[in-house]
Every structure is written in C-alpha cells, then in structure tokens.
C-alpha cells in the first residue's frame, strides 16, 4: 500500500503532458512595391510595415492573455528584400530585431510550401496544437497572395489557393482554435473551403479590409464597407 501511495503522488506531481502545449502562429505576407502602386488610385502599401505592425499587435494581445505563450511568426522574406531596394532602410534587419523583443520565433519563408509544411509539422502536432492563426497579407476571395504587386505588377507568383487547402492536415488545431484572415474578400469563398479542408472555421472579410486606418484601430486593419464572417 505505501508503494501504491508513492506512485500516485509521483504521478500527481508530474508535469503536464506535452499534448497540453499550444502554439500561436502569425503569418505576414509581403508589401507591394511603390514603384508600381504609386500610379494607382488608391495605391497599395504606401508603408512597408502594413503586414508587420499588426503582427506586433497580435503578439501583444496573445502575451497579455498568456505570458508564456509560444508564438511563431512566418514572414515572406523575398518581398521585403525587394522592397528594401526602395531605400526605406534595412527592412529584413528591422523585422529580425522585432522577434526577440516580443519573445517570438521568426521563420522566414520563400514559398507557400514552407508555410504549409510548418503548419503540418513545424512542431510535433500530436503534442503541440495550433491555438490561433492570423494571416496578414493580400488576398482575394479564393487565394492568399504572399507577394502581390511585389515581384510582378498587380499580380502574384507566391500564393496559396483555396483548392490547395487540402494539403493542410486535419487535427493540427487545438479545440476552439481561432483562425482569422485579415486580407480582403476571404470570407466570400475561401473561409468555407478552409472549414471544409481543415475542420476549423476561419474568420474572413466579405469586402475589403483597410490597412490605412490601423493607427486609429489599435494597429489592426479595419473593414471597408464589409463584414466579418466564418
């Protein structure tokens, strides 16, 4: 009997299993090149940090709710390497310096494959589930565009289409995980296909999102005559 009691006490004192761990993921796509956008009305991304600053807000929100939260930040590096050639400063260095200030892990990516692979296997997903996933980038109703108007004018060469969402494994998300796209039009089609593919709802915009008003919206984009939907 004393031995049985000792075993019970030992189990009670043991740390929680790794399955109780969670990861919070934020994805930042690339800003458009102003050399093309300046001729449009209105232009996209006058500021290089459109998809960087709101990521910082999410870091702060997550840490306020859970100071020990494990946060990973995926950033499309080629877009900022091209954008820094506009003599706005050492953008990739600035971005790299943000991560340690907020206690997040920075993962640079160059292709959608890296994003999908990280979601599926960046952590052992049987143990570390994804608690939240935020997308800050250009999008349309059927596609995330990581480099819109950055490598080619008014187009993208790095994207994740709604018909490719089946590449994302089911079972990688925690119960009640919160997934949100802060891009334009995602709620018009892609949100439904995301739920069908992953089993988890994704909040998306019906209509456009406006990053130009972030400074008066806690540094998060706002809806532009639209609504959020799942």
Radius of gyration: 19 Å
Write down the oligomeric state. Answer: single chain
Tell me what portion of residues adopts beta-strand conformation. Answer: 25-35%
Please give the number of β-strands: 10
Architecture, according to CATH? Answer: 3-Layer(aba) Sandwich
Descriptive overview:
- The chain has one domain: 3-Layer(aba) Sandwich (Rossmann fold).
- Helix content is 29%, strand content 28%.
- The chain contains seven helices and ten strands.
- The protein has a seven-stranded mixed sheet, with helices on both faces. The chain has a three-stranded antiparallel sheet with strand order 5-6-7, with no helix packed on it.
- The longest helix is centred in the first third of the chain and has 13 residues, at 53-65.
- The chain starts with a helix and ends with a strand.
List the helices and strands and how they pair.
Elements: H1 2-13, E1 21-28, H2 34-37, H3 53-65, E2 70-76, H4 77-83, H5 91-101, E3 105-109, H6 112-121, E4 128-136, E5 138-140, E6 143-145, E7 159-161, E8 173-181, H7 190-198, E9 202-210, E10 222-229
Parallel strand pairs: 1-2, 1-4, 2-3, 4-8, 8-9
Antiparallel strand pairs: 5-6, 6-7, 9-10
